[in-house]
Amino acid sequence: MSDQENKTAGSRRSFLKGGAIAAGAAASSLAAPAVLAQSPMVLKMQTSWPASDIWMDFARQYVNRVETMSGGRLKIDLLPSGAVVAAFQVLDAVNDGVLDAAHTVPVYWYGKHKAASLFGTGPVFGGSATNMLAWFHAGGGKEFYRELTQDILGLNVYGFFGFPMPAQPFGWFKEPVTAVSDVQGFKYRTVGLAADLMQKLGMSVAQLPGGEIVPAMERGVIDAFEFNNPSSDSRFGAQDVAKHYMLSSYHQASESFEFLFNKDLFDDLDEDLRAILQYAVEATSTANTAIALDNYSKDLKSLQEESGVTVHRTSKEILDAQLQAWDELIPVLEEDGFMKRVLDIQREWVERTVFYELMNSPDYALAYDHYFPGKLKL
């Protein structure tokens, strides 16, 4: 960032803080009505998503909760990808103070350190996104994240995690694929460590933001791709460039959203406002889960019935190959001391917690097939 941009960002933070103090002083001296005592503090938050993506709706749920919980003292100016910086650049913008906050995923800054992928898109030892979000909050993940962002990378940010995403589909293909040999030589879009994984399966990989995927498919830059879910995929027109949708994969099966804040700005806020920004993430996680299940399922049905898309479950051969690819990648990742410490703790967490989950869970597929016979084709 240039010296002038640094001055602008610093002036913005000083203005926000100073404005709140001045407003409070005016209220004391003039005994003005409480509603006039303080102008709302406005935070500029950019997402990594196009304006039409359902994830912008998810981000709006956060904005609405923050503004309501703060009694109007906080306002968030929510902007789509590209409004200020590109989708993959929001971390740098928040670090530099160009943005106050961002709604993104850590895999988008994987280029700074591969450990970013361990916070949602790393090796799958058996834990779901819900399980790994629990690891972040209760199993040591939060402390490792702080160490990575602040101690190792020296970033001026805080990050909070919310909304455990359903496992991401293997993706969109022009023809169905059932064997590893079917995908070898493909040019495929994914991000983060999933790129390393798919290269092990014989594909070449392009790491593209969501808004660039369909144009790349139309130009032949890629042959197949994944993004995240039926709603996001259908909104950017995946069904117009491919008709075979492969569900189930181990490449990104435990991801959550990352809510980033500039550390200096966050630290300058009143204690209750800091708490609102942090804990509204947890409230939004529940709300996001509800609209995700509702919309993802409806949009998957629409893709089948209205857009002529054939939905497949990824074959066991390909899933087994993905696990074997993770087996090859993990020792390489563990050459980095920090990543080895994170992976060791994740394995310990998954071994204990997922044993409980699997032993305790009834066979939901059996119950579903009992009441809706013949729909599942596993």
What do you see in this structure?
The protein contains 14 helices and 11 strands. 42% of the residues are buried. α7 links the parallel β6 (187-189) and β7. It is α/β, with parallel strands linked by helices and 378 residues long. It folds into 2 domains: 3-165 and 254-294, D-Maltodextrin-Binding Protein, domain 2 (3-Layer(aba) Sandwich); 171-252 and 310-371, D-Maltodextrin-Binding Protein, domain 2 (3-Layer(aba) Sandwich). The chain has helices at residues 3-30, 54-69, 90-96, 129-138, 141-152, 180-183, 193-200, 213-218, 230-235, 263-268, 271-306, 316-333, 337-360, 364-371, and strands spanning 41-47, 74-79, 101-104, 157-164, 171-173, 187-189, 204-206, 224-225, 244-247, 256-262, 310-313.
Which descriptors apply to this entry?
alpha/beta; D-Maltodextrin-Binding Protein, domain 2; 5-stranded mixed beta sheet; 3-stranded mixed beta sheet; 11 strands
Supply the CATH class of the largest domain.
Alpha Beta
CATH architecture of the largest domain: 3-Layer(aba) Sandwich
- The CA-CA distance between the termini, in Å, is 52 Å
- Radius of gyration of CA atoms, rounded to a whole number: 22 Å
Summarize the entry for a quick read.
This protein is an alpha/beta fold. Helix content is 50%, strand content 13%.
Write the layout of secondary structure elements.
Layout: H1 3-30, E1 41-47, H2 54-69, E2 74-79, H3 90-96, E3 101-104, H4 129-138, H5 141-152, E4 157-164, E5 171-173, H6 180-183, E6 187-189, H7 193-200, E7 204-206, H8 213-218, E8 224-225, H9 230-235, E9 244-247, E10 256-262, H10 263-268, H11 271-306, E11 310-313, H12 316-333, H13 337-360, H14 364-371
Parallel strand pairs: 1-2, 1-3, 6-7, 6-8, 9-11
Antiparallel strand pairs: 3-10, 4-10, 5-9
